[in-house]
Amino acid sequence: MSHRSLAALVKAYDVRGTVPDQLDAEVARALGAAFAEVVLAPDEAPGCVIGHDMRESGPALVEAFSDGVRSRGRDVTLIGLCSTDGLYYASGSLDRPGAMFTASHNPAAYNGIKLCRAGARPVGEDSGLADVRVLAERILDGEVADPGGPTGTLDERDLLTDYAAFLRGLVDLSGIRPLTVVVDAGNGMGGFTVPAVLGTGAGLPALPLTVEPLYFELDGTFPNHEANPLEPDNLRDLQAAVRAHGADLGLAFDGDADRCFVVDERGEPVSPSAITGLIARREVARAVAGGADAADVAVVHNVITSAQVPEVIAATGARAVRTRVGHSFIKGEMARHGAVFGGEHSAHYYFRDFWYADTGMLAALHVLAALGEQGAPLSEVMADLSRYAASGEVNSTVADAPAATERVLAWAQEQGVTVDRLDGLTLTHAGGDGDDDPMWWLNLRASNTEPLLRLNVEAADAATMARVRDTALGLVRRG
Questions:
Q1: Given this model, what pLDDT does residue 449 score?
Q2: What is the pTM of this model?
Q3: Where does this protein have coiled-coil stretches (predicted)?
């Protein structure tokens, strides 16, 4: 009998693949049983909570996964349609492990699972996911049979109103000036959560917001554009709508609505690093208002957020904690330092008051509050948080990533840089006092799954950024 491998399906942080050739009901059931054995130990949790996004394959996969969990005598609570941060809310508020069926922004043929322990603590390759994969493979191979004992219970709960009320309790918008906001849900779960949180869809009181919806119809085929606002083409409809409506700002959510992207009143994208700085200021101020000493407050950011992020954090008197790219590293550092907030360049925003988990909706509430608490337009509010010119992430296919990296290092060392290998290679040129020697930094990181090098460059001005970016790319692609 040939061995059934799930290596292509079970990634470092989640499960993700095409349906049904990689992920079908049989595989989902095996993963559910393995999840129950590995994560739902009797002394840890008697059961779990399961939700899914709008993809057509979701309900059948949830049913199979739930059957696998219950076959191990563990209980299941189904919360139905939800965003990923809605699942994290359920895991945190119910203190149960969770499984969210989503493939985020991936195309319609995909689905997947994001797993967490009680309190929304992540399950990744180094924290149980590899064990889940191995056990699921053994179950599929017939090496591990069902135990045959009593099955767990099954119940259903609707937590949308509780989720919306909880977020509103963290950021109060009731007293802000009236704002018009265009929201592009991309046919993803933002179309489900935005009416509940920003509107009256969950029975909560109306806020001083006029929401202009774009693509709120839940449709896992994504008929209008990919639900991935990180790609500039997917923001064009939002930008046009903001200008057409004369709106104060625009918000775009990805497929599972755990990331939020912002455009200002001109329709110009706002850097996630600038949003990180804005929210960091607000969360530090809230902690200090609650009696904390600013020096004891920490904010986490990854190695490729803008250089202005640690500068903004330092100006508040708080501590900036730098870590590797990836949610498990952000969450781990936040827990270690008790950080109030963490931000990534990819528009994932993490909050201590949300079980250290990421939630795009809570980030959106902070932006709306910061804008609505004063009279200036968003472009002015964000002006001092957009200090430098950035390249964005540029990927290059390379045959020999280490050799390409060393070529860039050799060139940069001639320019006078500091070298940091926390996550890939980070090279920083501090610059001088005059305009003829501007600051710049770059980071080169190898992909874990593809023959790619990922380059990020930032500089004090656009010309320097372009020069450093183009020089580095020439060296990377020379081979």
A1: 65
A2: 0.95
A3: none
